[in-house]
């Protein structure tokens, strides 16, 4: 997991390339690489919440928040 956090550098890079009107493929690639650690962090957070809230609420949280990282760049 800690090696995935190195990919967080692609989030500001995606913003910078988007604002600087770089090639859209470069913007897409940097945004796609930035989503990977965000999805991991969100998955870990929902697992921790599920431990505290119980299996039913944990399943609901996982189903509800599972795609949040994908929607954040849309």
* Quantity of strands, as a count: 0
N-to-C SSE series? Answer: HHHH
Total number of domains:
1
Percent in strands: under 5%
The largest sheet, given as strand count, sense and whether it forms a barrel, is: none
Global shape: elongated
Low-confidence regions: none
Helix content: over 70%
- Annotation field: number of helices: 4
Question: On the 0-100 scale, what is the average pLDDT?
Answer: 85
Distance between the termini: 24 Å
**Rg calc:** 15 Å
What structural class results from the helix and strand content? mainly alpha
How does this structure look, described?
With 74 residues, the protein is mainly α. The chain has one domain. It contains 4 helices and no strands. The chain has helices at residues 10-19, 24-53, 55-65, 68-71. The radius of gyration is 15 Å and the shape is elongated. The relative contact order is 0.14. The model has no long low-confidence stretch (mean pLDDT 85).
Task: Provide a brief overview of the structure.
The chain has helices at 10-19, 24-53, 55-65, 68-71.
Draw up the topology in text.
Elements: H1 10-19, H2 24-53, H3 55-65, H4 68-71
Keywords:
single chain, 74 residues, mainly alpha, 4 helices, elongated
